[in-house]
Amino acid sequence: MRAWVASPVLCVDTTAYKFDLVWPSLRVLARSSPSDKYVLVTGIINSKLSKNREVVAVTGDGTNDAPALKAADVGFAMGIAGTDVAKNASDIILTDDNFTSIVKACMWGRNVYDSISKFLQFQLTVNVVAVMLCFIGSCAHGASPLRAVPMLWVNLIMDTFASLALATEPPTTDLLNRKPYGRTKPLISRTMLKNIIGHSVYQMVVMLIILFYGQTLFKLDEASYDTDDPTTHGTILFNAFVWMQIFNEINSRKCHGERNVFKGIFNNYIFVGVIVGTTCAQIVLIQFGGHAFSTKGLNWYEWLICVAIGAFELIWGQVVASIPKTIIPSGMRLGTQPFTQEEATQARMLWMRSLKRVQHQIRVANAFKRAGHERHRRLSLLAEASSNSLKSNPSDASQAHWWTKKSSDSDIKLRGMKPASQPLLEGDEDDTNV
User: Fold this and answer.
1) For 147, phi and psi rounded to 5 degrees?
2) Nearest alpha carbon to residue 315 among 256, 259, 276, 239
């Protein structure tokens, strides 16, 4: 490949057209000054040579490098040799001043992006199935197939445990073999949307079969919607749903169409721990939950069916992976439009307004708390003074009682109530409980 060695004068004096002819082949910028860095960064960003805007990263350690670090999409500053001005203008600080750390930063950045995609793929699948199941069950039988406490357990699996399992995947060198993501790449790609729709269809079909035909298939005496007590039918429905989520969580480890979902699974001990812990907790909830969790113990045959339904998610995942993503229209991708400056400003203003409102409510709560403490302190001091007066002079008991009664009546009036010793006037309402 041919390399160009450009001088500072060439970068400064050339027009945008000539600049676009030079920079794609540029490999070394000899004896460049901080201003040359700035010109090169802004020139590549404003270039019209390619269809998409280029993403530019630049390194710097001096104060004069701050404009280039600020103008670039990603600015790297040196943590040891870099100045404070350069560090403040940069996005990432290399604490060891080693350029190989940039590769690690790229690897971790892609890993974080993939972790968000995995969690979204898993959570959206659970949400779609749970909402549709509760809606159809409520319309058909007047009650949700999933009771309140089992639904809380599903939410715990879906949010807390899934985020711990899928967001703690360690980065691998395979991430560097992929092309970088574009600035307008959708947050939910067509591959992810294909996985969400595919797994949601399978889970919905299974849940509806168990809901409407489970009583006949399992030869049960009563259905879950016939009584409010825990039933075997409702327990099978809940158990099969959870087992499908457990195995779909394994499928969600890969969100780019990979087939081997078990690759590197034992490198993430948190993921293995979450799967094992969720499995053990599910067994305990089903067999010993009782009325608290609206469950009834199952026999070995019913357990085998529920686990088999969940395990089939792994086979179904291979079927979904074989379907080309082109069947999903490109217009169905979500999150392709980046935020404009106006939208970002509005979001920042809403965030600050909400924060101010919360701070104001905290100040009001603290003011009421201080007033309550002050009133309690005054009453305690008054009671202590009355007690000491009685001990020193028993003849002042009636006077001490009068002072105590007067303080109590004053406190009642401050709260808008009438003292107990004062009779209510005719027509007045007793508002002591307001």
Assistant:
1) -70, 180
2) 259
